[in-house]
Design brief:
- The longest helix has 13 residues.
- The two termini are about 15 Å apart.
- By secondary structure, this protein is of the alpha/beta class.
- The strands form six sheets. It has a four-stranded mixed sheet with strand order 22-23-1-24. Strands 2-15-17-16 form a four-stranded mixed sheet.
- The protein binds shikimate-3-phosphate (S3P).
- It is an enzyme of class 2 (transferase).
- InterPro entries: Enolpyruvate_Tfrase_dom, Enolpyruvate_Tfrase_sf, EPSP_synthase, EPSP_synthase_CS, RNA3'P_cycl/enolpyr_Trfase_a/b.
Amino acid sequence: MSSHGDPIPMTARKSGPLKGEAQVPGDKSISHRSLILGAMAVGETKITGLLEGQDVLDTAKAMRAFGAEVTHHGPGEWTVHGVGVGGFAEPEDVIDCGNSGTGVRLIMGAMSTCPISATFTGDASLRSRPMKRITDPIAAFGAKSYGRDGGRLPMTIVGAAEPVPARYVVPMPSAQVKSAALLAGLNAPGETVVIEKEATRDHTERMLAGFGAQVKVEDTDEGRVITLTGQPELQPQTIVVPRDPSSAAFPVCAALIVEGSDVLVPGIGLNPTRAGLFTTLQEMGAELVFENMREEGGEPVADLRARFSDNMQGIEVPPERAPSMIDEYPILSVVAAFAHGKTVMRGVKELRVKESDRIDAMARGLEACGVTIEEDEDTLIVHGMGPGGVPGGATAEARLDHRIAMSFLCGGMASQQPISVDDAGPIATSFPVFEPLMESLGAQLVRSE
Ligand code: S3P
């Protein structure tokens, strides 16, 4: 089932060369943060290039429920009139974050040091995901939480009336947990210290500094130590959201595996904490070129050109690279199936608690397509069958997971027989224009029965 409405089965067939330019939408992580930080600033934040996927629309709706004025002016153009740090009003109804772990976790963090209560829920995928990783850090600031067994949604958070600053060591590599703790620390007096052992995407730190908060980041033996001074007055910003590298991954990878392809994906955010996939693809021998490297809105940006690559070799992906490509393992495992030799992905157990258990979803779907897979709790190994070597001819379960659906559809553009997904509906959470955009490049996608 899709999160909103009936399932949309879809089939991808072997496609002619993919050619042309792919304008992918705005970055999902930065879009959520633009709305949330905009809502915590005093005055009007202007955003262009906002991703208008369902996940971000749900965050916009939530920010309205907490008292911010969020206005849509035109495609990607939004303003947020913020209520200031600590200024959130108590929502009148349950906050439904749909499919979005980032939305719910960041918002829980942000409201947890305000003297209000809020109840959160989401779709079946989000209701199955662990929230203890958020309720633990926010408890350190004085918030209380009441959820279902196993720390699942629906969950009520009672914000701390008298928040205290905290020192929190993030136990798993998670930008969502780090960000929830930092957003909680915003309304605690004094210094909050958040420590991550492995560097994860740093948009929250960058954007907090941009909004005028005092944030210090140090690399120490303990890890990355982030020190935030609480209760600043955040200054409204003008934000240009770069295009999402995690969405760019789909046209890029499809071009690498579909014979004769040559696709340009302009204006992609290449923050080093997000760009691990592209390094990995280059190590595999992908014909991937970065053109016109530049900086836009404080983030490195480039145009990516991807060409069909018939000599990609499987590699051992360094586990320490995982946080910088955590959302890209599903599409990488499809590329790996079309490479020569074995691709070994270790240190990836966080994939088991994403929108779906992504190790299991990819393993079962690829096996159904004729690919040999090995897996354990923390590892996925794909035995490549070479360009054009994947039989296909199967239907993969999308499991309410946009990236699983898009990964199998890209695979179906290059496999011998078509590949279907049982529900392409979740794609709308992050990449609403996936279908027309891929079709404009030459992909053969059909809505099936
Ligand atoms: C995100 C962090 C990652 C990522 C998600 C977006 C963010 O999740 O998978 O798609 O915007 O902070 P984790 O923090 O759970 O690794």
